[in-house]
Structures are given as C-alpha cells and as structure tokens.
Structure prediction request, 190 residues.
Amino acid sequence: MDQDRIAIVSGLPRSGTSLMMKMLEAGGLEVLTDNIREADKDNPKGYYEFERVKKLEHDRAWLDDAEGKVVKIISQLLRHLPAGHGYKIVFMRREMEEILASQRRMLARRGEATDKISDDKLAALFRQHVQRVEDWLADQPNFEVLYVSYNRVLEAPQEEAQRIAAFFERSLDVSAMVHVVDPTLYRQRT
Prediction:
C-alpha cells in the first residue's frame, strides 16, 4: 500500500469492523485510534475507534495524519471522505440476522430499548443503505474496495488473511492476523 493512501475498515455496526482492525494491526499496519472508547462485554478486545471520525463531515484536518495508517469509519460517513486522498477500504459484511441479534444484545446490556423498530424494518433499512454505499463506492475513482465476510473470516481465517494481505500489496504478517481471530467471540450465530 502506498504510504499516501489511507486504509479504512468500514461496514455496518456489529459487522466485524473491530476484529478487522485488530487483524490489520497484528499484520503490521499502524492503526489510528485514540482509545477513548474502552473495551467492554460487547467488544472485549476493543473498539479501535478514533473520535474525530464522527465529525468527518466538518473535520477533515486529521486525514493527513491517517496516510499510511488504517482507521475505522462507519459506512454512513464514507461519503464525507474528500477526493484529495486515495483510499483502500476493507468493507465488512455479516449475516443480517447476526448483526441484528448483536445489536439487540448490546442495547439490552446498556439498558436501552430494543423494540423501537422491528427487525424486519431495520434489516430492510440496513440492506438499502449498504446497497447505496456499494453503488457509490463503485463510482469513486480514488477508492479501492475489498468486501470481506465476517462469517468467512471465522470459517477460513488463513485464506481470508492472505486475501486481505494481497489487497494491501504489503507483506503483512498473515500468521499474526490469523492468531487474533477468536472464535469464542462469535456469539450471535445464524
């Protein structure tokens, strides 16, 4: 990966973005995180977030510092990335039922309502959103995207880690990437 490119891990919430950040860090990429959001029962290995990402629409000054590093950006914010940079995105996919179950469990743990919107409606909204993001990404000349299934990473971590390393065109430590995949954290299965 060129040092002036920015590596991004994206996807829907609860789709495996934190696992992918951990894999890339283990593989040898420098991560951009501030460690403000601490690990908890929902993400016991950490969230790998960078707070300034949440203000990407209005605050892009930090992007120069992200060159040559990997940062997690939720899919809703990708449209705010300026054209002046090149991006390599690992976009995480996961079975929708598992995303919804994981989201429900996380909200319940926090004491928040889990029935504000039906699973069917939320799944439809998520699918529409992902389709719009994928269509948009396909039209961006400065974006390269690799779609990675969370489920496949857990089934075949060696194969997926090799595929990811090839995408970044760097000699990432594939063995270390595989080592951080923890199947015991795969708690919402379909």
Remarks:
- The longest strand covers residues 86-93.
